Amino acid sequence: MANNEESLSDLVPPQYPSFLTSLRDGSVVLPFPIWRDAYINDADLETAQRAYDRLNPHPLKTFTDKLMVRTNAAEISLPKSFINCTEDIALPHSFPLHPRLSEKLGPYRLVQTAGSHELCFSDPARLARAIIEAGRGLELIWF
Q: How would DSSP label each residue in the chain?
């Protein structure tokens, strides 16, 4: 959750960019062993490999370019929720997504669920239940 004039690289530990493998087209990928251990640590090897094989390289500039927004998330009056996957170690526990980044939302509903950063691959039904819980009682606004 970046605020105005922050980049994703500003929100991760300094050694994290070194984990990325740069490709000639300006995109990056995480090597499978790092992705397996830190992002999808709740899946068996076959599920992890099948999910990894579906991933696309990610443009490096989405990590390094500063976000330019008129209003930071905490200043927006819409209801917000944060789904915290309790086995998510994509960032180290000393540098957590929650509460370090979730608090940038301002007031929000916290939904805790078991799972890794890649719960969409390892247990999509559990993620769907968390999304439903996160939206419980909120008006959905589609843009």
A: ---TT--GGGGS-TTGGGGSEE-TTSEEE--HHHHHHHTSTTS-HHHHHHHHHH---EETHHHHSPP--SS-GGG--S--EEEEETT--SS-TTS-STTTTGGGGSS-EEEEES--TTHHHH-HHHHHHHHHHHHTTPPP---
pLDDT at 93: 84
Domain ranges of the chain: 8-64, 74-135
- Asked if omega into 31 is within 30° of 0 (cis), the reply is no
Q: What pLDDT, in 10s, does the model give residues 52-108?
A: 999 999 999 988 999 999 999 999 998 999 999 999 999 988 888 899 989 999 999
Reference 11, options 122, 90, 73, 118; nearest CA is 90
Q: 143 pLDDT exceeds 70?
A: no
